[in-house]
Amino acid sequence: MKSLKFIKYFIIFISIAVFILLFSFAGLLNPVEGVLNSIISPIVSFFNNISSKVSDIGKSAGSVGDLEKENSNLKNKVDELTLEISQLKESKAENESLRKQLGFVGSIKYKTIIASVLTKDPSSFLKVLIIDKGSKDGIKKDMAVVSEGFLLGRVLEVNTSMAKVLLITDSNFQISGITQDSRALGIVKGQIGSGIAMETIPKDKNVKTGDMVITANLETGVPAGLLIGKITDIYTENNGLFQKASISPFASLDDVKNVILVSM
Amino acid sequence: MKRFFLIFLTCLILLLEVAFFTNVKIFGITPNIFLMFLLASSFIIPEQDIFYLAFFGSLFLDLFSPIIFGAQTIIILLILFLVFLTSRFLFTNVNFILLFLLATVSTILFDVLFGLVLFLSGLRVDVIFYARNSLVPQIIVNSLLALLFYPFVLLIWENISRFQSKARLLK
User: Fold this and answer.
1) Separation in Å, CA of B52 to nearest CA in chain A
2) Residue in B11, B5, B21 with CA at minimum distance from that of residue B145
3) Which residue of A138, A224, A253, B104 pairs with A217 in a disulfide if CB–CB is 3.0 to 4.6 A?
4) So what's the ipTM on this one?
5) Closest to A33 (Cβ–Cβ): which among B15, B63, B89?
């Protein structure tokens, strides 16, 4: 006689799971999830640090040969940026003096919250990071998430002590963006696979490769002017009415350890 | 002692899935280690213990999942139920072909149900892109894991049983 006890256990546990799902759907489990997360977070963070180091060792072993070339490129970049900084300082001084003359209020300050990355979503479907700060720290849904000064994503889901961040390269991600030089407005979307693109750029706008794309101030909770990426390719959309541009994101998405959540 | 071993191994596997293999990917994917461990162990460990492990382990995974809390637990319990049905009524012996088949079907079923929940939550999933790029490596890695887990759990389980019988005799 074959044992059919598993049917009994299945019915018991699936019934409890359905109740949990219903409670969760009603938002009644957020405090419980928060407590569990705060207990589990340090352990997961510890394991994540180890795996991150293992991953770093693997990557650095494979890239020793490229370091010399990269170093030389970076030195050139530093020279270029030093020149640019001195020009910008001049512009800033001029800007401040003009603002004073016109009686403008000082620049708007962003509210920032620093968080550590606990882990990534283990499923292969979404590009999601899990961070160790939640609603009790002031994090809200749709807040912008920045890494090293560049837009990394937006908050997808929050519970009391943890939040999930949808990365800009996920196909569900979208935000309004504007090109810094040509002031062309468009929708920045994550692409299937990887990478991001700016869509619905008006055809009359003279967008060029190398143009910087920043956030426009059209969504609540996302400040304007956050750097997204650089245009690498431009083509006409299928309907012939708009332009579409491929963007190379500035944020390093593979190895993020800390992030800053920004809101206005 | 057996239960202590099971709980320890489950905790280790869950931490590996959530915090280790998300950074150190195999062929670009994070394998469903926990699901494969349950699948392989379902032939060795008593049903009651497996369902306890599946339930609490899946709730742990749910904490880090982008889908609604509890949904992944339901998916894993359903798959486990199907594994039990298949192994009790369709096959008499455990062999590598059966493990490979079950691992393949479980991987596909898990991904279909997970994708369905994402879709119902209003999130977009490109099924064709996913099937072309991730499904095959996922099936291969998961099957290999199931094939590794089965002899490993069996060996430890038998050794603990032997040790416990000796201890009883000495008493």
Assistant:
1) 8
2) B21
3) A224
4) 0.89
5) B63
